[in-house]
Amino acid sequence: NRQVTYSKRRNGLMKKAKEITVLRDAQVSLVIFASSGKIHEYCSPATSLVDILDRYHNQSGKRLWDAKQENLSNEIDRIKKENDSMQIELRHLKGEDITSLQPKELMTIEEALENGLASVRDKQSEIVNMLRKNGKMLEEENKHLNYKLRWQQEMGMDGNVRDLENGYDHQRSVRDQFQPQMPFAFRVQPIQPNLQERI
């Protein structure tokens, strides 16, 4: 029952606020918080709640918020203006909306663009130099690794040759051990008489 009554009374208050705004040309702002925490508000079309609160603050002399909140509000306004200014400047740097600018302003934009271009070129040159340096380092590393690989391969081949030589010497010594001793030595005799005469 209380909820139904609240809804009816709330709607009635909203209706009366609208009527006063239309019939009496008054500035009205109405804020209602339900027991559930839900907010309902109405404000005259020609104004805003902040404007009405400022007028109330000025006329009644009561402080609705402290200096810290005012400073925050001022800071927000300042940041919004600064943001708008930077948006305009960015459009000018892109070459948009420059027809209304004076020659001095155009020269300032040109100088800013030239400085930006110089910074971009410096950064690009720095990156290219870094890439070249890295390329040289990789090339040196590659040479070093190739040298190590060749050295290891040569050492491996030398080891295999030594193994082969050792195996050959071992086989020869084994063969010499088991070869029968010859009882006499052979002497070559010339078959042709001419050769025999020379000897």
Automatic annotation (TrEMBL):
The keyword Transcription applies. Its main location: nucleus. It is found in: Nucleus. One of its GO terms (molecular function) is protein dimerization activity. Residues 1-46 form the MADS-box domain. It comes from the Eukaryota. GO terms for cellular component: nucleus. The keyword Cell division does not apply. Pfam families: K-box, SRF-TF. Residues 69-155 form the K-box domain. Keywords: Coiled coil, DNA-binding, Nucleus, Transcription, Transcription regulation. Residues 62-96 form a coiled coil. PANTHER family: SERUM RESPONSE FACTOR HOMOLOG. This is MADS-domain transcription factor. It comes from Davidia involucrata.
